[in-house]
Design brief:
Elements: H1 2-14, E1 23-31, E2 34-42, H2 43-50, H3 62-67, H4 69-77, E3 80-84, E4 87-88, E5 90-101, E6 104-114, E7 121-126, E8 137-144, E9 147-153, E10 159-163, H5 169-186, H6 188-198, E11 203-206, E12 209-212, H7 216-242, H8 250-270, H9 277-297, H10 303-335, H11 339-366
Parallel strand pairs: 1-8
Antiparallel strand pairs: 1-2, 2-6, 3-4, 3-7, 5-6, 7-10, 8-9, 11-12
Length: 370
């Protein structure tokens, strides 16, 4: 039943959205009693929240954006609280710019927080878009006295406190590890790609028919080959993209990820991947790695902080994958001899996955929503 539940989850949730999750990038530099801030917020998210496209033509011009500068500042800064040693700091907008991130155009709001004294302990309360999208994340880069620390704000971690005299690398490591787990679990395209490759692992092709494997060992070896190849491949490109050695447009990457899900699912119906699923996992895993890197790449962290975040995030992804595999393999092995698994789950489930991914591919390649 676990296999069927995974398919239902992918079908129900996948149709809703499988694009890059909603993120914003908050940079704070503490200098004495002043906190200088820059907040990069996706124009598509602001348009959904307060409406920026005045003429409804699907394009946000600089004139339309400039006309709403005060509204943008009021909306964003009312959802951020900066508290220094228990005393709230007053937030003042300074300047509005536009910048391009890997997934599109962002409003760049520069602001200043005036605090009564130079803070020793800084408490931040982040509430941007949580009422509209509980999965939204705010990625923080906080710099003070030569030290840089990072944090991730989410619906369940909207308020966080930072002792500026000390830096907890362990806390940052654990937080990015948790974010890696969340990223793979909420990345329905990544899950469906992996699931498509794992579904035949407990079966063997004999002529034109699927037959159950005789023991757990061959199924385990097949799963191990697929997961290892996928892990090795996406770890390579995750590292290269995060360190900005190689960068690709987000639209190309997301379209290729959707295409990989279509191909992997159709391979179970037309059977053109038998014995080569590990190679498919490796080849397309390289593309999926660029998708994973979107969370970290736009932070522009200093190398020492970036390496810590990269290792933790990647380990979190692997831990999330292992949980999926640990759920899948025992149940698939127990159900492998049933008609339900060989026809409904493998063939029918793969067809559903291919249809969902085809919708994603059309949306991403041609930039529209059904």
């Amino acid at each position: 039943m676990c296999v069927l539940l995974c398919l239902i989850m992918g079908f129900g949730c996948g149709l809703a959205d499988a694009h890059k999750p909603s993120d914003s990038y908050l940079t704070l530099n503490v200098a004495g009693s002043s906190v200088n801030g820059q907040w990069d917020i996706a124009l598509r998210d602001l348009d959904f929240a307060i409406g920026l496209d005045a003429d409804g033509d699907g394009e946000i011009t600089w004139g339309e954006l400039r006309a709403r500068h005060k509204d943008i500042a009021a909306y964003a800064l009312s959802r951020l609280a900066v508290v220094a040693d228990g005393v709230p700091c007053a937030l003042h907008p300074l300047r509005h710019l536009v910048d391009n991130h890997t997934d599109g155009a962002y409003e760049v709001l520069r602001f200043n927080a005036d605090c009564a004294t130079a803070p020793r302990v800084l408490r931040l309360n982040y509430r941007l878009f949580f009422d509209l999208d509980p999965q939204h994340k705010g990625l923080l880069k906080l710099s003070t006295t030569g030290l840089t620390r990072t944090a991730i704000f989410g619906w369940s971690s909207a308020e966080q406190q930072f002792d500026l005299a000390r830096q907890s690398r362990l806390a940052s490591f654990l937080q990015y590890g948790k974010e890696g787990v969340f990223h793979i679990w909420s990345g329905f395209d990544h899950i469906l790609f992996l699931l498509s490759l794992l579904l035949p692992a407990v079966l063997a092709r004999q002529g034109r028919n699927w037959q159950p494997v005789t023991g757990l060992r061959p199924a385990f070896i097949e799963v191990l080959k697929v997961v290892t190849a996928f892990t090795f491949a996406h770890s390579i490109t995750l590292s290269l993209a995060t360190l900005r050695v190689v960068t690709l447009p987000s639209r190309w990457v997301e379209s290729a990820i959707a295409a990989s899900v279509v191909i992997a699912a159709l391979g179970n119906i037309f059977v053109f991947m038998e014995g080569r699923r590990w190679a498919i996992a490796f080849a397309f895993g390289l593309i999926h790695g660029f998708g994973f890197a979107a969370v970290l790449g736009d932070l522009h962290l200093p190398r020492e902080a970036l390496l810590l975040a990269l290792v933790a995030f990647n380990l979190g992804i692997e831990a999330g994958q292992l949980v999926i595999v640990a759920c899948f393999l025992p149940m698939a092995f127990l159900l492998r001899e049933t008609w339900f698994y060989r026809r409904a789950s493998l063939v029918g489930g793969s067809l559903v996955i291919a249809l969902i991914a085809a919708v994603w591919l059309a949306e991403r390649a041609f930039d529209f929503r059904l």
